[in-house]
Amino acid sequence: MVGRPNPGKVPVIPSVEERRMKAWRLHDRGDFRLEEVALPEIRPGWVLVKVKVVQVAVVDRGYLEGMPHPHQARIARMLAEGKPVQVGHEYCGEVVEIGPGVATLNVGDRVTSAGGQIHCGTCSNCLAGRESQCVSPLHIGVEIPGAFAEYMSIPEWGMVTVPDGPTDNEVAALQPLGICVSDVRSASIKMGDTVAVLGQGAMGLGCLQVAKLAGAGLLVAADVRPEALDLSLDFGANAALNSAETDPVGEVRRLTEGLGADVVFEAAGGRKQDGLAGFQTLQQALQMVRRGGKVFQVANLEGLLELDPVFLCSRSIKYLFPDPVTAENLSYAAFLVASKRIKVSPQITHVLHGLDKLPEAMEITVNKAKFRTSNPPQIVVG
Length: 382
Ligand SMILES: [Zn+2]
Fold this sequence. Notes:
- By secondary structure, this protein is of the alpha/beta class.
- The protein folds into 2 domains: about 5-175 and about 350-380, Quinone Oxidoreductase, Chain A, domain 1, CATH 3.90.180.10; about 175-320, NAD(P)-binding Rossmann-like Domain (Rossmann fold).
- Helix content is about 25%, strand content about 25%.
- It contains 12 helices and 17 strands.
- Strands 3, 4, 5, 8, 9, 16 and 17 form a 7-stranded mixed beta sheet that branches. Strands 12-11-10-13-14-15 form a 6-stranded parallel beta sheet, sandwiched between helices. A two-stranded antiparallel sheet has the order 1-2.
- Strand 16, helix 12 (about 360-365) and strand 17 form a beta-alpha-beta unit.
- The longest helix has 14 residues, at about 175-185.
- The relative contact order is 0.15.
- Zinc ion binds next to helix 3.
């Protein structure tokens, strides 16, 4: 779905004020309100989507708590201009109305988005076919009001149709899995490669399963939570290391006869106050990867990082960040779930009903270890 029907030159269809909906909107840091607002405009090339299920992404919390966030400058600008921010971008929805010029979607289609970022279709990168590197994208949950609402309006080129197969709850969880597909593809795993995955949350478990399908040989999972490691073994890990009880670097070296892993996915780092590993697991990843191997940064790290370029250069270690997830990545993720090659539903442990449950869902997101869950909590909207 490349390109756009030049909506800037076509008059916007006025919203109908009598049509109202409920939506969570951020008015200032910590000031998050469930409000009744007008239904969003349906511009040419856009569609109106009824939200069925939405889940709380880690970045959604950032809006509430003022955490460092990729879009915080934009959010701050919007709030300063008195424009509330409506978050949420991991969702399953149904197209209920289409705007003029929509060519690829129909009323009744079940949809989700590959990522929060929607390419503009007109910048030099987009025109060169590098839509994932768009220089002026729109973001669902920032410029485009997001999915913690009964309805939202999105450009057709920002959505992916998901046919029957996965449940609505699984569709809402597809976006992180699409990122895992992108991560594993970016890693170019070769058949038989030893792969270590640090962190067995939703992203780690997704990378583990996709890496196995991509031909990984010895597959090593590490985490500090025994219940997460049980899932890792269910999903195909050959070894599950409890990093609270054993040194994962030493164990990976022992399992690889001293060489180290060909590819390491770092999916455990992040803020220590959130129960994440800070930079510790990245340093472990750099120590356990073999000479010439690859370390993939899956987790969202914050702050400035100390790296030793001499160590990295002398060992030819590639420290890599994947491209943003594409619609094709997400469609493939949907196929993997529909064909039962990848399991998502065992991770969906907390499903709440009603938009008013968002504070409870946020509480679970903040305390995933306490609630013994890896997938974000989900809310069934309607
Ligand atoms: Zn662009």
